[in-house]
Amino acid sequence: MSSLIAQPITAEAFAPYGEVIQTEGAQLTLINDGLCHRFSDLASFDIEDGRAGLSFFRSQLRPMPYRCHLLERHPLGSQCFIPMSDAEFLLIVAPDNGGKPGPLTAFLATNNVAVNIARNTWHGVLAPVAGSGLFAVIDRIGTETNGGQNLEEHLLEEAVLVKYDQ
Fold it and tell me: What is the pTM of this model?
């Protein structure tokens, strides 16, 4: 079994796979009599033939090291994960290589960032390693009759063991 070390997530390192969404460095507007900070337009949702929807996912915490055996991608829309608690989660991503996942990269994200995974980017399933496992998810809502299926899955021939330095 091959192994992979998850690196701390940065906007630059994650750019080939989507967007890191964070308030650090974002344009700030004061609203509500100066009592609220608004950080606007932090992500570009890429939706084809459907509509963006907001869902909540509650995923079980994953033991470390994590055995990744399944990747998925969404050909008709990006998928945004927003942690709703003090969380750490793994992002295992891969570029598309002729309809199959290319080389894997792993990131460790904390509750101070959200991620918007680009359309057609292969990624592991939601894998929280600390916190409640509760996430808000913005992605494409549609059906077979409303723009087609937006989920493809790929079982890896051999699981990959993902670790990170704690």
Answer: 0.88
